[in-house]
Amino acid sequence: MLIVTKPVDFPYKNKNDFLTLNNYGKFTRIKYSDIIFIESDKHRCIIHKTDNSSIIIPIPISQIIDMTKNSPLIRCHRSYIINMEKISTIDKTTATWIVKFNKSNKLAFISRSYRPEIIKFLNK
């Protein structure tokens, strides 16, 4: 007999594969696999997608973090959420690590306080 004492978190692919947002009065669904990273700009976020387009939404980054539990999206800086599946390289030679992505020339950054979480995810 198996006794489960706490809830089991399944990988995001077994749950909802989409980020659903209320974007200026209409709902927008974006596949996690289509997101490269999300950048905060004042009180709005810019979602950078794999097709080189971007979506601007009037939501703070903290609210997006709450919506992306059990997904490949991880906060790595106070202004960035990155898709861990889209990373090509991480440059650790600077104080703030620089993230480069597959098939994109855009960059994101990993701050010192978020490094342990990123390293933990990469070591899985």
Q: What does this molecule look like?
A:
With 124 residues, this protein is mostly beta strands. 12% of the residues lie in helices and 42% in strands. It contains 2 helices and 10 strands. The chain has helices at 61-67, 115-122; strands at residues 18-23, 26-31, 35-41, 44-49, 54-57, 73-77, 80-83, 87-91, 97-101, 107-110. A 5-stranded antiparallel sheet has the order 5-4-3-7-6. A 3-stranded antiparallel sheet has the order 8-9-10, with no helix packed on it. A two-stranded antiparallel ribbon has the order 1-2. It is globular, with a radius of gyration of 15 Å. One of its GO terms (molecular function) is phosphorelay response regulator activity. Residues 19-124 form the HTH LytTR-type domain. Pfam families: LytTR (PF04397). It comes from Candidatus Fimicola merdigallinarum.
Order of strands, widest sheet: 5-4-3-7-6
Helix content: 10-25%
Q: Please count the helical segments.
A: 2
Radius of gyration over all CA atoms, rounded = 15 Å
Structural class: mainly beta
**pLDDT under 50 segments (min length 5)?**
1-15
Q: Could you say which overall geometry the principal axes of the C-alpha atoms support?
A: globular
Mean pLDDT figure: 84
Strand content: 35-45%
Tell me the number of strands.
10
Biggest pleated sheet: 5 strands, antiparallel
SSE pattern: EEEEEHEEEEEH
Question: What distance lies between the first and last C-alpha atoms, to the nearest angstrom?
Answer: 28 Å
